[in-house]
Specification:
This protein is mainly α and 174 residues long. It has one domain. The protein has eight helices and no strands. Helix 4 runs antiparallel to helix 5 and helix 5 crosses helix 8. The protein starts with a helix and ends in a 17-residue tail after the last helix.
């Protein structure tokens, strides 16, 4: 049987398993809250993770190009980049998705065909890591700008510095 047709039949089981594996990476107290995946406004994190995993699975089934996965992966990485996850933990949800797919499909399809299919997911992990680094750089830039602004404010408050006009001296002739 072709892998995409088996994948389509087991789509919902794969999505649910990947979602449960992903939220299991969160601290104990948050797991039960995150399971409320259908409540967009009361649980936006769980909802966005679930919806993004669903889009990733649908793109895999449709055999879409790697670029089509970026927005879905970015949605999850944006959430995990601001949390206390290491880079490997933040990107690890891709491998949990891979595990969910393997667990659901290994008994119904040819193993070599499955391994070839799963190798595509490794490319998604690289994309996820690039996205994670982009967001972490943004966070560190914001933190450094905030520190500079605070320092400048304190220095101005204590009259240690004053603003300097950035105008050129008009007496200098070219």
């Amino acid at each position: 049987m072709e892998i995409n047709s088996v994948f389509s039949k087991k789509r919902q089981a794969i999505i649910d398993k990947a979602f449960n594996l992903t939220i299991s990476t969160y601290p104990e107290g948050g797991i039960s809250f995150l399971k409320g995946k259908h409540e967009q406004f009361t649980n936006p994190v769980g909802y966005n993770i679930y919806q993004s995993i669903q889009k990733i699975v649908d793109n895999l089934i449709a055999d879409e190009s790697l670029e089509s996965f970026v927005s879905s992966i970015e949605e999850i990485i944006r959430i995990r980049a601001v949390q206390d996850f290491t880079p490997s933990q933040a990107v690890g949800f891709i491998f949990l998705l891979k595990k969910a797919i393997y667990d659901e499909l290994y008994s119904d399809v040819d193993l070599f065909q499955l391994m070839d299919y799963l190798s595509r997911i490794d490319s998604l992990a690289l994309i996820a890591f690039d996205i994670f680094m982009k967001y972490r750089e943004k966070i560190y830039d914001l933190k450094s700008k905030e520190l500079i602004d605070r320092t400048w404010w304190v220095l101005k408050k204590w009259n240690i510095v004053s603003e300097i006009n950035d105008e050129k001296d008009e007496t200098v002739q070219k």
